[in-house]
Amino acid sequence: MATIDVTEDTFNDTVSSEGIVLVDAWATWCGPCKSFAPIYEKASEKHEEVKFTKLDVDANPGVSAALEISAVPTLFFFRDGIGVYRQSGVMNPAQLDDTLEQIKALDMDEVRRQVAAQNAEADAQEAQEDKA
């Protein structure tokens, strides 16, 4: 599968879709981004069930700020609309394959339980701070 460019208009819909979505946050001026591009493209052909996307951080500053991107390339892995992993820096082909296999093996019911627990804890802390 070829890579798909995402923008501020398409990012949320793209990453919230079912399945695995990989986002390569990159910049035209970034040397490591350019060296990683062929690795990323080849992986997109190997893992056809994964949606491989690219986010130009300079052209999409709102999404870049929301994701708190401080270095490029940064890879974001989403599964079923949930961000499950993030890594700054280049991955070699074996690392990328291994990470994707680990994400495929995730128990998403358990991940959803953990996310719900974290959200409940954050809400409780916010409520406590509001009382203070």
UniProtKB/TrEMBL annotation:
<keyword id="KW-1015">Disulfide bond</keyword>
<feature type="domain" description="Thioredoxin">
    <location>
        <begin position="1"/>
        <end position="105"/>
    </location>
</feature>
<comment type="similarity">
    <text>Belongs to the thioredoxin family.</text>
</comment>
<keyword id="KW-0813">Transport</keyword>
<dbReference type="InterPro" id="IPR005746">
    <property type="entry name" value="Thioredoxin"/>
</dbReference>
<dbReference type="GO" id="GO:0005829">
    <property type="term" value="C:cytosol"/>
</dbReference>
<dbReference type="GO" id="GO:0015035">
    <property type="term" value="F:protein-disulfide reductase activity"/>
</dbReference>
<dbReference type="InterPro" id="IPR036249">
    <property type="entry name" value="Thioredoxin-like_sf"/>
</dbReference>
<comment type="function">
    <text>Participates in various redox reactions through the reversible oxidation of its active center dithiol to a disulfide and catalyzes dithiol-disulfide exchange reactions.</text>
</comment>
<dbReference type="Pfam" id="PF00085">
    <property type="entry name" value="Thioredoxin"/>
</dbReference>
<dbReference type="InterPro" id="IPR013766">
    <property type="entry name" value="Thioredoxin_domain"/>
</dbReference>
<keyword id="KW-0676">Redox-active center</keyword>
<protein>
    <recommendedName>
        <fullName>Thioredoxin</fullName>
    </recommendedName>
</protein>
<keyword id="KW-0249">Electron transport</keyword>
